[in-house]
Structures are given as C-alpha cells and as structure tokens.
Amino acid sequence: MGAYYLGATPLFALVDGVLGAPIRVAGLASPGLRAGYYLILVLVGVFLLLRPSMARWIVMGESVVNLFLLLLSVLLPIWSLPEVVLAGGDPEPPFSAVGLLNVLLVGGVLVWTFHENAWRALAPPPSAR
User: Fold this and answer.
1) Residue 123 above 80 pLDDT?
2) Rounded to the nearest 10 degrees, how much is the dihedral formed by the CA atoms of 16, 17, 19, 25?
3) Counting Cβ atoms within 10 Å, is residue 89 exposed (0-12), middle (13-18) or buried (19+)?
4) In the chain, which ranges are continuous DSSP H helix?
5) Domains of the chain: which residue ranges?
6) Which of 34-43, 62-71, 83-92, 108-117 has the highest average model confidence (pLDDT)?
C-alpha cells in the first residue's frame, strides 16, 4: 500500500497544482514548500524502486515523518488560538474542509501503512518460522 501511495505522489501534486486542493499536504500553506515536499516524496519513490528490499523500512520512515507533519498541522493552529484571543483578535477556525479531509485521508493511510509494514519488516524470515 505504501509503495502505491508514494507512487501516487505526482497525481496528488497535479491535483494540488491544477485544482489548488492540497489534499496530501494541507498542513503546508506555502505552495513552494508543498512543491518541495512532493519532490522529496518522488525521490523517495524512485529510491524505493531502486532498492525494493528496503521498501518496508522506507515506507515506515516516510509514514513517521508524514504523521509528525500531520500532527503539527493539527496542533499548531490550536496552539496559536490563545495568542489570538489574548491579543483581542477573532480566532479563525483552525481547520478547513480540505484540512479535515487531509487528516482523515492521510492520517488513516499513514497509520495503516506504518503498521502493515512494521509487522512485515519485523517478522522472522520464512526459514525461521
């Protein structure tokens, strides 16, 4: 699943660029940061194709990084709310529909992918069973 998810990165980048819907990386507000992120994921996908024996570990590592970024995209707006209120401003909703879709879609896939690959990566080789 993780390899397909990484392989779909150009499709996510295309949807982001054409429709302006950053479904995969809604937490990154800057289009430049999102483009850089997509480029890194494409390079990780290429590395995955070159080193298929490392696929489980690569996908697990990518999942951990993405979960960290996803958590930051959820927590940073929430953490900034007290500052806005104390400064006398009107707080904006911390999440948009795209942001919630990102959390549900990406978060679910990342958690599932991490666990799927962790079990396979840590399982004893077939000869040891």
Assistant:
1) no
2) 10
3) exposed
4) 2-7, 9-19, 31-50, 55-86, 97-122
5) 2-128
6) 34-43
Residue 63: what residue type? S
Give the span between the Cα atoms of 58 and 45, in whole angstroms. Answer: 9
CB 70, CB 102: distance < 8 Å: yes
Taking residues 112-125, what's their average pLDDT? 77
Round to whole Å and give the CA distance between 9 and 24: 9
Percent of the chain exceeding pLDDT 70 equals 92
Cα–Cα distance, 12 to 21 (Å, whole number): 9
**More confident call, 23 vs 87:** 87
Per the rule left: phi > 0, alpha: psi between -120 and 50, beta: everything else, 22 is beta
Return the structure tokens found at 12. 């996510």
